[in-house]
């Protein structure tokens, strides 16, 4: 069985959605703080356009990262763990094999 063929029980879907939402909220809140800091330091037009470019790049990254398709969710969780937006223990409730796969992929 391939990672993309993994089945998700209803309980696992609920755990996965809660973990996904928690990681997204953390990253967005961190981004908001960073944008506030950058915006408060703007003194020149070039800095404003730099903030615009930064936000465009971050939006692209975040939109691509937070993909809630079950076929890729193991990989999404691994990346979120690796980047520090999610902790392995927040996936408690998922099948042990799924958690092991996330943990292994997050170390790559």
Describe the structure.
The structure is a single chain. The protein has 108 residues and is mainly alpha-helical. Helices cover 69% and strands 0% of the residues. It has four helices and no strands. Helix 1 runs antiparallel to helix 2 and helix 3 (73-83) crosses helix 4. The longest helix has 31 residues, at 10-40. The model has no long low-confidence stretch (mean pLDDT 95).
Helix content: 55-70%
Which residue ranges are poorly predicted, with pLDDT under 50 across at least 5 consecutive positions? none
Biggest beta sheet attributes: none
Supply Rg: 17 Å
- Could you report the average pLDDT, rounded to the nearest whole number? 95
Q: Tally the beta strands.
A: 0
Approximate shape: elongated
What is the rounded distance between the termini? 21 Å
Please work out how many helical segments DSSP would assign.
Answer: 4
Helix/strand structural class: mainly alpha
Name the helix and strand elements from N-terminus to C-terminus, one letter apiece: HHHH
Strand content: under 5%
């Amino acid at each position: 069985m391939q990672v993309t063929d993994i089945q998700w029980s209803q309980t696992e879907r609920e755990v996965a959605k809660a973990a996904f939402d928690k990681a997204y909220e953390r990253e967005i809140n961190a981004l908001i703080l960073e944008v506030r800091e950058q915006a408060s330091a703007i003194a020149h037009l070039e800095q404003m356009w730099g903030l615009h470019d930064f936000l465009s790049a971050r939006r692209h990254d975040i939109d691509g990262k937070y993909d809630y398709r079950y076929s890729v969710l193991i990989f999404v969780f691994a990346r979120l763990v690796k980047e520090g937006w999610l902790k392995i223990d927040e996936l408690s409730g998922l099948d042990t094999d799924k958690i092991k796969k996330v943990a292994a992929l997050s170390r790559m």
